Amino acid sequence: MQNSQQPVLAVDVMGSDKGPDEILEGIYLALKTPTSLGYSVILVGDESVIRPALGHRRFRPLLPRVEIFHAGEVIAMEESPTKVLRQKKDASMARAVELVRDGKADGALSCGNTGALVALGTIKLRPMDHLERPTLATILPTIGRHFVLLDVGANPEPTARQLVHNALLGAHYSRVALKTPSPRVGLLSIGTEEGKGNGLVQRTHEMLKELGGIVDYAGLIEGFQLFQEGTNGVDVVVCDGFVGNVLLKSIESLAKRLKGFLRKELLRNPLRIFGCLFLGGALRTVRRELSGEKYGGAPLLGLNGALFKAHGASNRREICHAILIAQRFLRSGHRDELRNLIARTNEILSMPDGAGGLEIKK
Asked: How far apart are CA 352 and CA 356, in angstroms?
């Protein structure tokens, strides 16, 4: 089924908090999008659940682009990756990853257990040559611009070498997803001055400064810079998976709280409700600019195969946009170029001091 003219995405239908129906609705929206013409999907999960849903009238024109792959098990959100690898051989997420490994799909998307997806991807697809670990990236919106944040949970305790690799992967993803021609990379720390940050940050900082011809490194950046307009031109923000995951969840929680607070205050009395009639356009613009909905798919970068993670609570529109992001990534190519950059980076950083490089330290 896989060929260069018709890329195929395997979708884990069973992993969502909202159930299979919401994922199927998201798939329907994605396949209807004009940019999706020529793309196909493999629906991975319980066939007895999937097939009746596809019998609905509106799905019928899309059926030639849809295939069902039955999987009899589901990975729960709380299950450990070790247990999944040992006991859930027929899980929908595992089967979707195997379809990529076996060349039957070009990429896979799941809303399920993040730790399980990282483990399955690492074991079944393996990291790219010269890479040690994959990294999970996401796109965050600000007014007038967006930036890539990584790692957001795949590797909580990376080495400096792995963070340098993440900078390369993040810059590549920024070019693909945001069409940034020359992404600038910043390293998240507690200050911008030399010497700020822990040992890991300082080692990574020194290595990135050595890669002027490979990475456009802007230096250390602080948390309050992330959402300033322009953010000093930084398109990619690099941090370890522990910091990134805490930061991402805090941002998501704050956004929901502010949305609820704003709605409550705007509807507090009739005068404010009347004023909303005049502010409606501005509020819609802010909502559109700050919504991360159209970048709902977070890629697991650095593997010999394309895997994408969507939030467990994703609605159908977010699922749709996650599929569209995955399709854009599959179209992009440039993997050979990325491999060459990684190999050249390792070569530079492995040179002894005084020979134009910095010896890699863990």
From this structure: 8
Could you report the per-residue pLDDT of 270-320, keeping only the tens digit for each?
777 767 766 666 666 555 555 555 556 789 999 998 999 988 888 888 899
**Which H/E stretch holds residue 331?**
helix 316-332
The answer, yes or no, to whether the previous bond of 151 is cis (omega within 30 of 0) is: yes
- What one-letter code names the amino acid at 339? R
- Residue 161 belongs to some domain of the structure: yes
Cα dihedral across residues 308, 310, 312, 317: positive or negative = negative
In tens, the pLDDT along 196-250 reads: 889 999 999 999 998 877 889 999 999 888 877 654 568 999 999 999 999 988 8
Give pLDDT, residue 230. 56
Listed in order, strand segments (DSSP E) in the chain are: 8-12, 40-45, 66-70, 107-110, 135-142, 145-150, 184-188, 216-221, 236-238, 297-301, 306-310
Asked, for residue 234, whether it belongs to a domain, the answer is yes
Question: What's the number of domains the chain is made of?
Answer: 1
Range of the domain at 215: 142-292+333-362
Residue 96: what pLDDT?
96
Sheet holding 184-188, edge to edge: 66-70, 40-45, 8-12, 107-110, 306-310, 297-301, 135-142, 145-150, 236-238, 184-188, 216-221
DSSP letters spanning 49-92: HHHHHHTSGGGGGGGGGEEEEE--B---TT--HHHHHHH-TTBH
For the entire predicted model, the pTM comes to: 0.83
Q: Backbone dihedral region of 31: left (phi > 0), alpha (psi from -120 to 50 degrees) or beta?
A: alpha
Look at residue 146 and tell me if it is in a domain.
Answer: yes
Residue 171 lies in a domain: yes
Q: Please report, for the domain that includes residue 225, its CATH number.
A: 3.40.718.10
Beta bridge partners of 66: 41
Lowest mean pLDDT, pick from 22-26, 74-78, 114-118, 267-271 = 267-271
